[in-house]
Write a structure and sequence with these properties.
The chain is of the alpha/beta class and 288 residues long. 30% of the residues lie in helices and 11% in strands. A 7-stranded mixed sheet has the order 1-2-6-5-8-4-9. Strand 5 and strand 6 form a beta hairpin. The longest helix has 30 residues. It is globular, with a radius of gyration of 23 Å.
Length: 288
């Protein structure tokens, strides 16, 4: 009888504890932003809209947390501005170009390009395209990039983000340095612009990222792959830059830490087919 009473009290205590834990878990889950919220472009401006601000018209504020160096000389990024202007002009001329919206990242999440490194050596690397994936929804990525980050270690951004529908989201002016690949190198090419951080390709890279499909938002080594619309839009964008295909690479390939594996499950054959198509026909029939 005593054992039965003790067992009953144990079951009651266990039930109460379970209710408390579940309640606390519910509160915790409710406070975490859901990573699959619909994309909100209510504040976005179409890239071809007259209201779109020229990248040169929006200088960075002086309070950005950039470690100073006597030898660093900032670049105006004019070559990258001209490249962006050329691609934007093609977009304006093409009836079937992918939708393209400006949704600027917060200025703490990107910086200036430099014409010299921290030792004062002139750098003149050709533009490099680095491909990424978000590992989250496009909306979650946008919210992170639009949040101020004062610590260098927390800052990150891409120049362009390609949604599952193939829409292009313009986050950082091409004349500016997006923080897409710290501690990175392409062949022997890397530039150090901060004495506290490792050299990287960021000073000469354009960072283009694919939104990860819902089934791929995990830490696994692969997933089901990207949408056809994403491959088309990415290939169109890369083709219009006319950058040498040999200078199109991935975050995984340039990363020196061995920790980056994106973009996972990327189909190079599929991408290259579309790349050739849009090199030959800049206004090829892209689905909207």
């Amino acid at each position: 009888m005593l054992r039965r009473s003790q067992g009953l009290r144990f079951l009651i205590s266990l039930a109460i504890a379970t209710v408390v834990v579940v309640s606390l878990w519910g509160v915790m889950i409710g406070s975490i932003p859901h990573g699959d919220r619909p994309l909100d472009l209510s504040q976005a401006v179409p890239i071809d809209d007259p209201q779109f601000d020229s990248p040169m018209a929006a200088p960075l504020p002086p309070w950005l947390p950039e470690t100073p160096s006597l030898f660093l000389q900032r670049s105006d990024g004019a070559d990258y501005d001209r490249l962006f202007a050329k691609v934007r002009q093609v977009h304006q001329q093409c009836s079937f170009a992918p939708p393209w919206y400006s949704v600027p990242a917060h200025p703490t999440n990107f910086g200036d390009r430099f014409r010299t490194d921290i030792r004062g050596r002139v750098v003149s690397n050709a533009p490099l395209i680095v491909l990424h994936e978000t590992a989250a929804s496009a909306q979650s990525a946008l919210e992170f990039f639009q949040t101020p980050h004062s610590r260098d270690e927390d800052q990150a951004s891409y120049h362009e983000l390609i949604t599952l529908r193939g829409w292009l989201l313009h986050l950082v002016p091409w004349s500016k340095r997006a923080y897409g690949a710290g501690n990175s190198v392409f062949g022997s090419e890397a530039v150090q612009t901060n004495p506290r951080l490792a050299p990287s390709v960021n000073n000469f890279a354009l960072h283009f990222s694919l939104e990860t499909p819902p089934q791929g938002r995990h830490n696994g080594s692969q997933h089901g792959g990207y949408t056809d619309a994403q491959y088309r839009s990415l290939a169109w964008l890369v083709a219009q830059t006319a950058i040498d295909p040999q200078r199109v690479t991935t975050h995984a390939a340039v990363d020196r830490s061995g920790e980056r594996i994106d973009p996972r499950s990327f189909d190079w054959a599929r991408f290259n087919r579309y790349l050739q198509l849009y090199r030959d026909r800049p206004c090829g029939d892209l689905p909207r």
